[in-house]
Amino acid sequence: FDEHFSYAKLCQALRYLLRDGPDCLLVGTNRDHRLPLEGGTAIPGTGCLVKAVETAAQREAFIVGKPNRYMFDCVVSEFNIDPARTIMVGDRLDTDILMGNSCGLTTLLTLTGVTTLDEVKGHQESDCPSRHSLVPDYYVDSIADLLPALGD
User: Fold this and answer.
1) What fold, for 69-147?
2) Neighbouring residues of 46: CB distance < 8 A, sequence distance ≥ 6
């Protein structure tokens, strides 16, 4: 994420990628289109910046963040994590919940982000298998709803 992203920075990125060719790794953190702010507003997310560089370079970035399982595999290699005893909590279906489901984790959606319950229901009722991978196991209105359970 770079809130000072500019045309000059896009040109510099393209120069690096062209200079070193296919050996120059193009890595992105995520493809989030928007980042929600309080009051229902949003700002462009990192995915917009990644897409700009991909378009200029005419190739796709390797995404290391959600929903790619790369990040999860790195954590698993460092820590003794049992997916059956792990929960993925997030506010986005297309990143947080998709990664959790693809990694065999229990998933919990918080409705404080860009996702609505109607969107979840639409995926749940769909006949499309790929849409079912976006359905969380559980949901809460806010992460704060979990605080009482953490005290136990």
Assistant:
1) Rossmann fold (3.40.50)
2) 1, 28, 29, 30, 31, 32
